[in-house]
Specification:
The chain starts with a helix and ends in a 6-residue tail after the last helix. The protein folds into 2 domains: 49-119, Alpha-Beta Complex (Type Iii Antifreeze Protein Isoform Hplc 12); 123-263, no CATH class. It has helices at 2-16, 19-46, 76-81, 217-228, 240-245, 256-263; strands at residues 49-54, 69-74, 96-97, 114-115, 132-138, 154-162, 176-191, 210-216, 231-237, 252-253. It is an alpha+beta fold. The longest helix has 28 residues, at 19-46. The chain is built from 6 helices and 10 strands, in the order H-H-E-E-H-E-E-E-E-E-E-H-E-H-E-H. The strands form 3 sheets. Strands 5, 6, 7, 8, 9 and 10 form a 6-stranded antiparallel β-sheet that branches. Strands 1-2 form a two-stranded antiparallel ribbon.
Length: 269
């Protein structure tokens, strides 16, 4: 038995020592590796990924529900290389289509097509505190610093007026009034003259015509009364730190003199 084992080992050594045999084994190993790799790539290509698509045309600013989307199988290779492609229905349902464009029927979803409720330009309207009212301040390119004010910014309002009531004689002793009126107002939206939201620096929907923000009833009436008088309300934009520092601050009247200046000229009914 031992002799048979010894003889078998000797034959194996001679076989492995044969250059032709080694070359053949090498070729077979290479072929096997190529076959395995090829089958892996084929299986990966023919095993598509399932991703969401729009079953219907979805207009801009639309809340997306499960009924609006379907699932389609596409090449995994495309899914892996497509930039910003949304790969899961959960990433679409409950989002909004952007205010920039309509998502056509049959389209795949990309991250730049979708916004959360908080990212929508009018999202702040849904979170107004009780007792607060939306006020619209007329503006233009000049008063918004070439449309540099956008939703989410905190601004101050300055008041400019002449120190004289209607009917008073104009003379050299009349003084101009200019000062900080109301502080820490969060802009909810910037609208054009058609009521559309616009983006900073005029990249969409024309020129700014109105700033929308929320104030309590007292400040709303104060601003409304000022609008009826010969005064000018000027929005003042500060840097990003101002917005950060005032994000938890309450809107407040800065000058009791300016408050009295307005209320003294208005008849309460």
């Amino acid at each position: 038995m031992a002799q048979q084992v010894k003889k078998g080992n000797s034959q194996l050594k001679r076989l492995l020592g044969n250059k032709n045999t080694v070359t053949l084994f090498g070729i077979l190993i290479c072929i096997g590796t190529l076959i395995v790799g090829y089958n892996y790539r084929i299986n990966k290509a023919i095993d598509p990924s399932t991703i969401p698509y729009a079953k219907e045309s979805i207009p801009a600013r639309t809340f997306i529900t499960s009924k609006m989307i379907g699932n389609i199988k596409v090449s995994s290779d495309y899914v892996n290389v497509a930039a910003n492609l949304v790969k899961s229905s959960e990433e679409v349902i409950g989002k909004y289509s952007t205010y920039k464009t309509t998502i056509p029927a049959g389209s795949l979803f990309y991250t730049d097509m979708l916004l959360t409720a908080e990212q929508m330009p009018d999202a702040g309207f849904a979170n107004i505190d009780d007792g607060y009212t939306i006020y619209g301040l007329a503006v233009d390119q000049e008063t918004t610093y070439s449309n540099s004010i956008s939703a989410g910014d905190y601004i101050d309002l300055y008041l400019q007026a002449d120190d004289g009531k209607e009917g008073d004689d104009k003379d050299d002793n009349q003084l101009a009034i200019f000062g900080l009126f109301i502080e820490s107002i969060r802009v909810l939206a910037v609208k054009d003259n058609q009521g559309n939201n616009i983006l900073k620096h005029g990249t969409a929907n024309g020129n700014p015509a109105e700033l929308l923000f929320a104030v309590d009833e007292e400040n709303y009436l104060l601003l409304y009364d000022a609008q009826q008088l010969n005064v000018k309300i000027i929005p003042v934009l500060h840097n990003a730190n101002y917005t950060k520092q005032n994000s938890d601050s309450n809107t407040r009247v800065s000058s009791s003199y300016l408050r009295s200046y307005i209320t003294d000229q208005v008849i309460e009914v």
